[in-house]
Amino acid sequence: MNEFLARIGLAFFFSATLASAFELPADCRQCILGLAPDWNSSHVEVRVFEKKDGAWAQSAGPWSGRLGKNGLAWGLGLHPVPTGVAAKREGDLRAPAGVFALGGAYGYAPQIAKNPALPYRQITSRDLWVEDPASPDYNRYLRLPSEPRTAWEKKQQMKQGDHAHSLKLFIAHNPAPGAVPGAGSSIFFHIWRAEGAKPSAGCTVLSEPNLRSLIASIDPMKNPVYILLPEEEYRRLAREWKLPAVESPRASR
User: Fold this and answer.
1) Is 16 a domain residue?
2) For residue 116, what pLDDT band results from cuts at 50, 70 and 90?
3) Quick one: which of 12, 67, 84, 225 is 20 to 30 A from 194 by CA?
4) Rounded CA gap, 213 and 50, in Å?
5) Distance (Å, rounded) from C-alpha 249 to C-alpha 252?
6) What is the pLDDT at residue 6?
7) pLDDT of residue 249
8) pLDDT at 248
9) Phi/psi at 193 (nearest 5 deg)?
């Protein structure tokens, strides 16, 4: 626990010196933007932006989605984390806020149509995503050589037998290697439950058609990022971080 607090404190120290200098990566030409009404809301509106001739333009969305039951907390991504704020923790039912790289897609189907450029892995009962902070493989994908046998292995399984996890896209919050134990793991875009009537445990969830549209739009060659922030925080940081201009979300709940 002391090591965890020390590492978080070190991240906060460096963020204080970097905050004024942060901008999106120079080679980033695509971003997914999620705006929540406030820090405690589980609702989000998602858009896709493309950069052309040095200017951002919306290319898809807006799509309504859900976040963690308890709203948002600052995550660990590409951005500096402000000092004196609530940070994302394992099991806090909050979505990580900030700017994050995107990983590959995972799903139950042998392949996904419309986007052969995006890395995709079919998940089976042998595929794990480690959510145990005590494990050296915390927040890392693993594939077992045989069927899971132990209770620990079964708890980490990606294939949970429910439709909501049948397709997902990795959001690189607190990624391995170097993941901070206890700072949150297994954060994805995936399919929402109950037609959006239920919040998530910390992921960004969309309707299946909208999630498929989002995944189909991702171009790894454009170094895409995911920006997730409450609207007021986004307005405050947009000029400094050179973020896309956007209208207010349609619904503030």
Assistant:
1) no
2) confident
3) 225
4) 15
5) 7
6) 38
7) 60
8) 67
9) -105, 150
Q: How far is CA 17 from CA 20, 58, 100, 197, 233, in A?
A: 7, 32, 19, 41, 19
pLDDT at 117: 83
Per-residue HEC secondary structure of 142-162 comes to EECCCCCCCHHHHHCECCCCC
Q: Specify if 82 maps to a domain.
A: yes
> Structural domain tally of the chain?
1
Q: CA-CA distance, 205 to 210, in Å (whole number)?
A: 10
Query: Any idea what DSSP says for residue 173?
Result: S
Residue 8 inside a domain? The answer is no
Polymer length of the chain: 253
Instruction: Please report whether residue 251 resides in a domain.
Output: no
Any residues with CB less than 8 A from the CB of 150 and at least 6 apart, and which? Answer: none
Note the pTM of the prediction, 2 decimals.
Answer: 0.89
Asked if residues 192 and 66 have their Cβ atoms less than 8 Å apart, the reply is yes
